[in-house]
Amino acid sequence: MLFSIFLIFSSGYLFKVLKADYSKALIDVVIYISFPALIIYKIYHLEYSPQIWQVFGIGLLTMLIGMFLGFLTSKLFKFDKKTTASFLLVTTLGNTSFLGFPMIVSMFGENNLIWAIFFDEITFFGLVIFGSLFVAYGSEKEINIKKMIIDIIKFPPFIALIFALFLRNFDLNIEFIKPFGDSLIFLVMLAVGMKFSFLDVKKNLKLATLALIIKMFLVPLIIYFFINTFLNIHSPALSVAFIESAMPPMVMASVLAIEARLREDLAISAVGVGILLSFLVIPLYKFLI
């Protein structure tokens, strides 16, 4: 399965080189159709477990640790505001859906994908809240709380989550929606492959490597120690949460850096190198659990 994921990723990259980049359209299809369908299907069939809150907690802790270490490093090296903001974006926000979902399915099977969905939901809140704070800091703009709330409410996967919780009150046959959700992994890996660029990887490689040491090594190892010490690392839910904590920087981190005119070369390089590194590093973490 992992080889298939890499093959789809490579196909997306080659398609962009030989034909065109349709990543924006593919991501739109995923966000408005595939991802909401997957959430509705998984949440409807979910049996309640207290581990849901543990996964939420690990997701939040992952971002807070990445943010703390990123801020500490920025102060240590005396980064300017734009560099600090970009650095925080890539150390705090992980690629928990577009890359995380295929990785989780390949290592734990589709039955455990639900835990990755919960982890990603808290990551989305982090994207809206922390992402907005970092952008405001780096671009010296005012923080807009109202816009944050509106962004959360109108995000299609969040709407799907609320709708799925409502549907659980009824005895329905929703098998017809499953093929829509099944398309997610193929579409997202094609899109990620199309977004990848070797030229971007070369830009600011040293700072990107420093960010990835924090995001893909220090953060997950701290999370592993926490789960293994205080919880149960052998629980499927927490095993998934641990692997998700090791995901490379979120693609949207580079998008925010570009739109806010921060250090986009740093963000793009960290995202690009992180994607390549994930195919080697993430499977190794499986041996810890």
Quick rundown:
The protein has 15 helices and no strands. It has 289 residues and is mostly helical. Helix 3 packs parallel to helix 6, helix 4 crosses helix 12 and helix 4 runs parallel beside helix 15.
CATH architecture annotation: Up-down Bundle
- Ranges where pLDDT stays below 50 over 5 or more residues in a row are none
Radius of gyration: 18 Å
SSE sequence, one letter per element: HHHHHHHHHHHHHHH
CATH fold name: Na+/H+ antiporter like fold
Mean pLDDT across residues:
89
Describe the secondary structure blueprint for this structure:
Blueprint: H1 2-18, H2 23-44, H3 51-76, H4 81-92, H5 100-108, H6 113-139, H7 145-153, H8 156-167, H9 178-182, H10 184-195, H11 198-202, H12 205-230, H13 236-245, H14 251-259, H15 264-285
Helix pairs in contact: 1-10, 2-8, 2-10, 3-4, 3-6, 3-12, 3-13, 4-6, 4-12, 4-14, 4-15, 6-7, 6-13, 12-13, 12-15, 14-15
